[in-house]
Amino acid sequence: MPALIDTRQLHMTLVAVSIEKSFENEIFSAFLEEMGTQAKKYFAQSPLLTLSGIGHFDERVIYLKPEKGDLLDRLYDFALDLKAFFSRFPGSSVEDMVFRPHVTILKLSKLPEGSKKLIKNVSKDVWFEHRDIKCGTQRISRVELNAMRIDRTTGRYYCERCMSTSSNKAMAPAPVTSMERGDVVGMNHETTEVLIGDKGVTADRKGKRRGRLQQNYMPPS
Question: What residues have CB less than 8 Å from 177, skipping those under 6 apart?
Answer without folding.
Answer: 151, 158
